[in-house]
């Protein structure tokens, strides 16, 4: 099991989601906690070293801390806005 941490801005974005969307994103975060990374994509460019998990129209940008078994959620936003 991985420990999940949120950047302050990502926590605000998560709490600002509508209930339906928040439930979907929370379900995906739980899969991260369990170590299920299939279909997650590594990012390129300025986000190199980070990964994204798809949650409907939302994307969860996270950083896997390797041997520490820690995942830091960096950003949660609509797919059109998440990379800006």
Q: Largest beta sheet, briefly?
A: 5 strands, mixed
- Provide the β-strand percentage band: 25-35%
Stretches where pLDDT falls below 50 for ≥5 residues? none
Helical stretch tally: 2
Return the structural class. alpha+beta
Gyration radius over CA: 12 Å
Order of helices and strands: EHHEEEE
N- to C-terminal distance: 31 Å
Tell me the total number of β-strands: 5
Strand order, biggest sheet? 1-5-4-3-2
| Average pLDDT over all residues | 90
> Portion of residues in helices?
25-40%
What general outline do the C-alpha atoms trace? globular
Can you describe this structure?
The protein has 84 residues and is α+β, with helices and mostly antiparallel strands. 29% of the residues lie in helices and 32% in strands. It contains two helices and five strands. It has helices at 8-16, 19-33, and strands at residues 3-6, 41-42, 51-55, 58-64, 70-78. It has a five-stranded mixed β-sheet with strand order 1-5-4-3-2. It is globular and about 35 Å long. The model has no long low-confidence stretch (mean pLDDT 90).
At a glance:
With 84 residues, the protein is an alpha+beta fold.
List keywords for this structure.
84 residues; 5 strands; alpha+beta
Present the secondary structure layout.
Layout: E1 3-6, H1 8-16, H2 19-33, E2 41-42, E3 51-55, E4 58-64, E5 70-78
Parallel strand pairs: 1-5
Antiparallel strand pairs: 2-3, 3-4, 4-5
């Amino acid at each position: 099991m991985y420990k999940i941490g949120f950047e302050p801005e990502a926590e605000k974005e998560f709490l600002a989601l509508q209930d339906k969307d928040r439930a979907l994103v929370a379900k995906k975060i739980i899969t991260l906690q369990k170590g299920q990374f299939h279909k997650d994509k590594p990012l390129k460019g300025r986000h190199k070293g980070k990964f994204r998990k798809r949650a409907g129209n939302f994307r969860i940008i996270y950083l896997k801390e390797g041997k520490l078994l820690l995942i830091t959620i960096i950003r949660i936003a609509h797919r059109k806005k998440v990379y800006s």
